[in-house]
Amino acid sequence: MVTLHRASTQRQELSAKQVARFQRVVAACQGSFLPEFETIEDLATDHHPTCTELVAELRDSLTNRRVEASLVLAGAYLRTGESGLAIAVLEPATTDRPQRKDLADRLATAYRGADREAEAKALEARYS
């Protein structure tokens, strides 16, 4: 993810190889990181958790990175007219970070590119 983050901050067009790499990373990183951690930690520490905050911070950081990678990937899709693919990566990102208007704006753009004006307007109305 760090390598992809560097590639995304250079503000250049992504190569086909980079797009494929972003696709793999975004797909592999969906969902919660270590979803069973609290249960296992509770058992291992006899109900005296020691790393819960650390794992929560790590989950939050990974979610932020995944969302940023999704934005970069969606941008590449939108530049090539692949609005449906952009929507597929932006919808989960918007669910992960519903407070981010920039995600909603990009998703609305993708909806419009896919002739889904009603969904774009409904999304914009939520952020007005």
CATH superfamily: Tetratricopeptide repeat domain
Q: What sort of overall outline do the alpha carbons produce when their principal axes are compared?
A: elongated
Can you write the helix and strand succession as a string?
A: HHHHHHH
The average pLDDT score comes to 87
Structural class: mainly alpha
Number of domains as seen in the coordinates: 1
**Low-confidence runs:** none
CATH level-1 class: Mainly Alpha
**Main beta sheet: strand number and arrangement?**
none
CATH-defined fold name: Serine Threonine Protein Phosphatase 5, Tetratricopeptide repeat
Question: What's the Cα radius of gyration?
Answer: 17 Å
In total, the number of strands is 0
Give the termini distance in whole angstroms: 33 Å
CATH architecture: Alpha Horseshoe
Proportion of helical residues: over 70%
Relative strand content: under 5%
Number of helices: 7
